[in-house]
Amino acid sequence: MALPISPIRSAEAGPDSTPLPFGPTPVAGLRASAWERLWAQYRAPLTYVAFFGLIWTLVSGALDPTVPYDAVEALNWARNAEWGTPKNPWLTGLAFWPALGLRGPAQAVYWYASHFAAVAVGLLGVWQLALRLTRRRELAWLAMLSLNVSGVLNVDILPYNDNFLLVMLWPWMLYLLVRAAFDTPTAWPLFAVVAGLAAMTKYSTFALIGMVFLLTLLSPELRRNYRSPWFALAVAIFLLMVLPNIWWLAHHDFAAFRWVGDQVRERLNLRGLKATVSAFYPIAVLAIAILLCGARLRRPTSPEVRAPLLLLTRVLLLPLVPIVAYFTVFDGGRVTEWLQPFAVPAPALLVACVAGARSGSGQEVSVRRAIVGFAGAAAIVVVVYAFFLCANVKNAGQKFSGLKTLSVVLDQRWRDRYGAPLRYVGGHPVSHWLTFYVPGNPYLLSAWSNAARPNIYTYDIDEANVRRDGALLLGTPDVRCDDADFSAVLAQWPTLKIDTTEDVLFSFHRDAKQKQKHLCVALVAPAAPPEEH
Q1: Is residue 35 within 8 Å of 381, Cβ to Cβ?
Q2: Residue 515 gets which letter from DSSP?
Q3: Is the CB of residue 332 less than 8 Å from the CB of residue 251?
Q4: What pLDDT does residue 414 have?
Q5: How far is CA 381 from CA 55, 154, 234, 259, 469, in A?
Q6: For 474, phi and psi rounded to 5 degrees?
Q7: Contact 198, 191 (CB under 8 A)
Q8: What's the gap between Cα 211 and its chain centre?
């Protein structure tokens, strides 16, 4: 799509050169024209991010064979509706809560739509942050579009139930930090809301928030904000958002922190360094594109640009040092997942270093070629992604699709035998997928235990209800019923008795080349015909 590019303006332009939100309220007679100027300012980027989100939602929703396991987690966490989860704070579950009223494929569509809606909001945040730092729309477009060469916006974002929220929130959090620290203290409460939401998405956000606190404490200019009532209100808002999660952690043996420790083991490795390169290579691509356009990267001369840029650079990059060091000493975990959100706002900081760059003839350098190139990259990525799924390259178009078939088959066998909906499933982790793909979303036959710390569980599960409604249990794949052992899952429910067992054949992927596996299915009969609810 054509990208409207305004004439390049100097980085030293005054604050009135670009209308920004949260500024002084216009007088009543100018209110309509002010809104018209705002709409003219944001119409093009809003159109782009909306189009981006719509296209990726349609492509992924139509072609992706199954949702990732993180969607199964999000569904179960949303149903529990607690102030925390075994891996994350509470926003990851809350984000999926609207989908609880949906049924069948609509829940999968919600997964994709919510992801790319969040990414679209995050892209607009990168645009806004770059605009605030440079006062140049051309550089704001460049920062936003450069992220199209990174999978963090599309392919890499789909497997996670937390990173897509960080992609949405971190750019706006940093933008509001600049607004609050350098423009107007009334932005502090808004910063606290966005920072609180980001912190309740993933604990890595506390690395940025801790750095913000440290830098404001060390800087006399920033420390003056402590005397503002707006800052005090911001602190109160943030604490109200995070304290319930601290209470939850204390009552669940700090499970989320222990989960991280369970994923790693002490051993020197290069995965931290490799993950850093994998996450930040788009920044290198952007720098090369800027240089090829004839611009130069240099420290901004304007104090209005240099001060917020220095603050954001420290807030964003200094926490990376201990994180990368930790994953260099300890091996394990999804390191790239931790680092990718740090790379999302980074283009806005880099383009601030080319503000005011000039060619040898004295004219300001245009980066239009780079903008067009990155826009073309966006189209290429979505076309290649669709081709890989349609052509089933490396089984991308059929991955885990056999679990959807298994869910439908087992649900039908349960209904044929007992004439009632399937309410509970348990046993091998394959059963977790049934909570998503069996119609009605049965509950997992697992209660919380500080000793076991299950990844997903049913918060208010009651043995009497399970005995009344019955349950379907799955054994270990490739173990026939003659050798299957369900004692571990039944140990929590001593009154449950297996009614019958049956070996079924299934495959994880709907692929003719894949050998089918035997799977033992055990049925715990309902104690009485349940009421439909």
Answers
A1: no
A2: P
A3: no
A4: 97
A5: 12, 9, 40, 34, 47
A6: -115, 135
A7: no
A8: 22
Quick count: other Cβ atoms within 10 Å of Cβ 368?
Answer: 15
Looking up tokens 């290579």, which residue turns up? 281
Listed in sequence order, the residues at least 6 apart from 120 whose beta carbon sits closer than 8 Å to its beta carbon are 49, 50, 52, 53
DSSP line for 73-110: HHHHHHHHT-S--SSS-SHHHHHHGGGGG--THHHHHH
Cα 438 to Cα 69, 249, 405, 413, 444: the distances in Å are: 15, 31, 10, 12, 12
pTM for the whole structure: 0.90
- State residue 331 phi and psi, 5-degree precision: -95, 135
Q: Which residues are CB-neighbours of 346 under 8 A, at least 6 positions away?
A: 280, 283, 316
| Successive 10-residue mean pLDDT values, the chain, 533 residues | 38 42 51 79 95 97 94 98 96 97 93 98 98 94 95 90 97 98 96 98 96 94 93 98 97 89 85 91 95 89 90 96 91 86 96 69 74 95 95 86 94 96 97 96 95 93 95 96 93 93 90 82 84 51
pLDDT, position 38: 84
Rounded to 5 degrees, what are φ and ψ at 205? Answer: -60, -30
For 35, 219, 338, the CA distances from 214, given in Å and listed in that order, are: 38, 9, 22
